[in-house]
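Hi R.,

Here's the chain you asked about this morning:
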Amino acid sequence: MGLIGTLAYLPVTAGLRDARDDIRSNAKDALSVEGFKDFKATYENNRIVYRQDVEAKIAAGAADLRALEARIRKDSKAIVPRGEHEEHWRSQNAQIINLQRQVDEVKAQAGSTYGVRDVIQRLEKQVEDLREEKYRAMSRGGP
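And here is the predicted structure, written out as tokens:
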């Protein structure tokens, strides 16, 4: 019976020994009460936002907003109204149409005048006439 008691007691003592070792290692890594108090004080100090800081940020934001509004007013004065753009576009379209009309007129005039094709045909006719004249002169017994 003593052997059975010992066999039952050995795992219990081993488990208790492991638990003590775990407690000791956790105690080494644990934060002391003093350390926790220091951490809490540092956290509370960093969490506090002073009124002057908030007012300074609000003032800086208001100054940025005023500068942005001034820039918007300046830029809006430089913007040309859409109606003026449309008038400019209509004027450009009229100029383009006028130029196209002038180009078409020049093309028509060039096409109706004596062209390169006509010159080539006239020269071919002259060469043909000269050949015929030469054959007639040779057939009459000429030079």
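One quick note: The two ends are 161 Å apart (CA to CA).

Cheers,
M.
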